[in-house]
## 1
Amino acid sequence: MMPISEIIRKRYSCRSYSVNPVEESVLETFRKQVNEPHSGPLGNAPRFALISMAALPREEWKKLGTYGVIKNARLYLAGMISPAPMATCDYGYCMEKLILKATELGLNTCWLGGTFAISAFRNAAGMRRNELLPTISPIGYAAEHKSLTERFMRRFAGSDHRLPWTGLFFHGNAETPLSSEMAGEYGEALENVRLAPSASNKQPWRIVYDDRQKTFFFYLSRAIGYRKLRDVSLQEIDMGIAMCHFELTARELGLEGNWRQNESVPEIKPWEYITSWQAV
């Protein structure tokens, strides 16, 4: 298996796809993963569906709302979840696992949260009345050349730039940056959090490490204008993606720990406490 850090670095937001179909063996492996039960660390269970454009009448394609953003995609991964506390964090955590699995299989993806028509995907995904459909992602092989639209959108979103450690990770409080030396064996896990995708590359996660308790406190630093979109917080999804990167890396490195909700957590305004990773 490919190391998780290699998979994370390999993945990027792909908006231009090849017309070549996904090999059936690869598609079957990925479909099996999609159809398995999914459960997030905060107690919610999203569902996922793989949608083939071949199953939709061609006149319906333009109603999907992805034209001009995604080119030539013939498969989409759609996710659904029932509204509940921390549901969107669990959703992001579980969908990112599938995104990384697709990457490992040699497939390309792109998180889409606001540039698609839910009404067009609802029936094809088997969406239930009490569910939300927060995001979708095209699935396929990258085109040989990026479209002009894709090059513009990557530049506009700042997709190739990331905040440094000093703006994301802290030691004991919100004022003291966490050095890679202090992070120790968790340095790779934190770096993979830094490299995680997020809406408009805002990177809303903030992590405070308490070395006495061996605990990483995960906070959400909301950006203006990202609180709700279609009853979904995209930045809460981003937090789930960050949690996924952190845990998968820690597990691969043999670092034991678990997610927990601490009753007494340092309050750091305006950040919002999400969860903690308790190292063992």
## 2
Amino acid sequence: MFLKMFFLQMFGGDLLKTIAVIGTGYVGLVSGTCFAEIGNDVICCDIEEEKVKKLQLAEVPFYEPGLGEMMKKNMMENRLRFTTNSSAAIQAADIVYIAVGTPMKEDGGADLKYVKAVAKDIGRNLNGYKIVVNKSTVPVGTGSLVYECIRDNQVDKSVNFDVVSNPEFLREGSAISDCMNMERAIIGSNSEAAAKVIQELHAPFNTQVMITDLESAEMIKYAANGFLATKISFINSIANICEKVGADVSEVAAGIGMDGRIGNRFLQAGIGYGGSCFPKDTHALLHIALEAGYSFDLMKSVISTNDKQRLTVIHKLHEIFGDLAGRQVGILGLTFKPNTDDMRYSPSIDIISKLHEEKAVIRAYDPVGLERAKEIIGNKASYFNDIYETIKGCDACVILTEWEEIVNLELDRLYSSLRHPVIVDGRNCMNRTDMIKHGFIYHSIGRKPIGQLKTILS
């Protein structure tokens, strides 16, 4: 109650809204919870009954630091609730956020069947003026499609509504911070009044706001992710060249990052990007270009480079051991990045599949992603809850995710646990000086290798 009174005083009572968020996946649940945190009345809706039952008990269906605590707080203060009753949620709301999944289709395009289903549901339950906001990452033109779906399913055609695009820019593992300290808010609409309402909704986030048309807002999300993916594939390509010419990609990245036109972010060489956004959005951007009659060769290369890059660690194991059949390999880190249990498009999936194909014996560890990994990777690996038990007796340790627990390994214990002191670092997260000091055979991405196995085997 105190928080709500604070925002009433600071921003005015008309700015606090009743918001329905349709879809309680990553984007919907985080966004809904943060909207409640700044004082709004939020109803999160999902069609999965068991999921909603767990949410009503404040059980978060995925790992995201700080989300559970914020959910519980806002539920206790009656600003956040969960339901399967989409009709009631839509009818009660001033603003309806569409935050359902847009999975990749076989042709690389985004599947909009869930977005369309929600738009139809909104049309059937439109009982007064509402602003409908696309939070899901959707192709250019989806705002107009949503408008038509709602209009076609309206019972009372005299009721007006507006459609807004408000794409999300949340990073898994830091989503609460990203939302509460928002870097920017993109608001696209053909209605100046609707755009102003969504702009005011974001006022407590103290963020930069850009207002544009629907199509530009939709394109901004894809262009942003496409550009960041390009930076990642570029620096990984530079890393591969560095290895051949004896340069150090870490030094190269630091040097080019000093150029203000380039910047130093997303220049960490490694085994490429994964997760729910970059793989899906780069393919979707390629599909958008194709549909528009443009051959986006640059994005094709970005995707191809990334696909190849994740197998770099396999090539390094071959350089060290030759044949991998029967070799025990300890995999440290399974999720696509730290501080999440998300396994979607994680490089570990392809790497473990390839190692399994080559008849290596795989032992795997991840601090929070084991259960999801088991569902995807299955019996191709053995799974462990302890790092040192994972690598015990292994011929090599392969680092695929730079979890804090992994970066801060006890190196003496690591050395003594391995059969051979071999580390292949797919994230360049270990200090080379420490590796030399402790006598490891250390291979990373785009940096000179340390040590030779021959001297140990001879």
## 3
Amino acid sequence: MTTTLKVAMACGGCAAAVTKVLLATQGVTEVRVDLDGQLVHVDGDASAEDLVAAVKGSGKAVELVVT
């Protein structure tokens, strides 16, 4: 399952920090960041709530993209 998040990221360091916290979340198998589009695509079986909470915990503004 792929979950897409809109995350406020300004640079590659922001993208790396978001990737790190998401990969540490149980159930996440892969993270792909689209820095220009401010989107993060997360593969795995982690809940959307857990993913949003992980990103918020890193201090970034985040919202779930419903497709």
